Amino acid sequence: MRIGLYPGTFDPITLGHIDIIRRGCALVDRLVIGVAINRDKGPLFDLDERVAMIKMQARRLNAETGTEIVVHPFENLLIDCARDVGASIILRGLRAVADFEYEYQMVGMNRQLDASIETVFLMAEAQHQAIASKLVKEICRLSGDVSKFVTPEVEAALKNRLHVEAR
């Protein structure tokens, strides 16, 4: 069984993330979505909220793709998380050159830690390349329309958390 790990903070999960998950499902038999606890980033949503949002999307994507999707919170090294879940592939989404520079360094370090685990990059679809969770939160905070960037459920959660009136 080919197991892939798609790690991130997912604060919140966006249509860009969902696109990478959908496309990653074609590459593996089981896709583990690793939700980084990462207290240093100061997430807007706590771990349980992020996991619940991702599980909702995972159920839909599982029905659509037939690939088993598991949500797995983690706080250890990414390479250790990959080992913990039995992943032979780490999936990473790329939006721009700046993403690649950071990811290139991460791959080099991860290869030093465990050369048996490959990293596979998927380019975000053109309509999703500008989407970043940080920007989505800022747009919502300033009462902008985020419906093109997140699912309706995530939009409602953002508005509720940021006390933004529905338009």
Structure notes:
- It is a single chain.
- This protein is of the alpha/beta class.
- It has a single domain (3-126), classed as Rossmann fold (3-Layer(aba) Sandwich).
- The protein is built from six helices and five strands; from the N terminus they run βαβαβαβαβαα.
- It has helices spanning 15-25, 47-65, 78-85, 97-113, 133-141, 152-162; strands spanning 3-8, 30-36, 68-74, 89-94, 118-123.
- Strands 3-2-1-4-5 form a five-stranded parallel beta sheet, sandwiched between helices.
- 31% of the residues are buried.
- The mean pLDDT is 93.
Mean pLDDT rating? 93
Helix content: 40-55%
CATH superfamily: HUPs
Strand order of the largest sheet: 3-2-1-4-5
Count the helices. How many? 6
Using only CA atoms, what is the Rg? 16 Å
Shape: globular
How many β-strand stretches?
A: 5
* Oligomer status: single chain
Strand content: 15-25%
By CATH, the topology is Rossmann fold
Largest beta sheet, briefly?
A: 5 strands, parallel
Q: Kindly, what is the distance between the CA atoms of the first and last residues, rounded to a whole number of angstroms? A: 46 Å
List keywords for this structure.
167 residues, alpha/beta, Rossmann fold, five-stranded parallel beta sheet
Short description:
With 167 residues, the chain is α/β, with parallel strands linked by helices.
